[in-house]
Amino acid sequence: MVEQPALKASVVVPTRGRPGYLRVTLESLAGQDLEPGAYEVLVVDDEPSGSTRAVVEAVAGGSAARIRYAEREGVPGLNSARITGIAASESDLIVFVDDDVDAPPAWLRELVEGRARHPEALAFGGPIELRLEGSRLAMCGREPPPLTTLDGGPEDREIELVWGANMAMDRRALDLAGGFDPGVPYGFDEDMWERRLRAAGGRIVYVARAGLVHRRDRRDARLGRLVREAYRRGRALRRYVEHRGDAPGLGRELRVLAGCVFHIFRYRCGNGILLAAHSAGRVREYLARG
């Protein structure tokens, strides 16, 4: 009888109606350079559909990696999907990724080894690089785009926050911070959980070599779609900071919007268009909820 390797990580992938993106993500996770039996992948469907299940089954059928499908339990939302994944996962290292990432083969191994290097930490994350496929959008580099990215530098270090597109937790962290709150507005949900963890004495470490790519395919990398996404994320961010209780007033939101518009023309920067759309979304949400 062949002894199975110890389970080093459970990778939880919340997803919602994006089977094309999910396939790329799962194929990259199936190609990790850990032994196939050393990790599992659990896809949690927040909007259960046959097309999502079919993608999971197709990738799982052609891979030695252990890939499972589960339907989200509880109210709809990202945190409910995460809670479902935590309950169904079997490792004491739980790793979250979004359904639109592309993870290089060494990514998961680097996270596992980073955890071993930093036993004092209870949560981890790594770099997130944005890839706009086929896009020629000019970006001056002065400001990050209002899409999920993270660059904490070339060395491991303690960090205030990491993002749920590339985030791992020791299961013991749940004893300190509790579980994720299904009532938090969709998006930015990990922020409050990480704040609770740090307030309870938990440490978060950035693992510099555990990077992956946050991708937008050629269709979604068109300027119009990027603007709409930035606007939507701006509205979601405003809802979240209001939920958190520290939302800025209208005057500050308008000053930020004016600065974003100035940025477009001062630096001839396409990213300024996205920043302005994101800011406009926050202003619109303020007015809608005011």
Structure description:
- The protein has 290 residues and is of the alpha/beta class.
- It is built from nine helices and eleven strands.
- Strand 2, helix 2 (50-61) and strand 3 (66-71) form a beta-alpha-beta unit.
- Helix 1 runs parallel beside helix 2 and helix 8 (250-267) packs antiparallel against helix 9 (270-289).
- The protein is globular.
- The mean pLDDT is 94.
Write a brief structural summary.
With 290 residues, this protein is an alpha/beta fold. It has helices at residues 19-30, 50-61, 78-88, 107-117, 173-177, 189-199, 223-244, 250-267, 270-289; strands at residues 9-15, 39-45, 66-71, 93-97, 101-102, 123-125, 128-132, 157-158, 166-170, 204-206, 212-216.
Topology:
Blueprint (H helix, E strand, L loop, with lengths): L8 E7 L3 H12 L8 E7 L4 H12 L4 E6 L6 H11 L4 E5 L3 E2 L4 H11 L5 E3 L2 E5 L24 E2 L7 E5 L2 H5 L11 H11 L4 E3 L5 E5 L6 H22 L5 H18 L2 H20 L1
Parallel strand pairs: 1-2, 1-4, 2-3, 6-10, 7-11
Antiparallel strand pairs: 4-9, 5-11, 6-9, 8-10
Keywords:
290 residues, alpha/beta, 11 strands, 42% helix
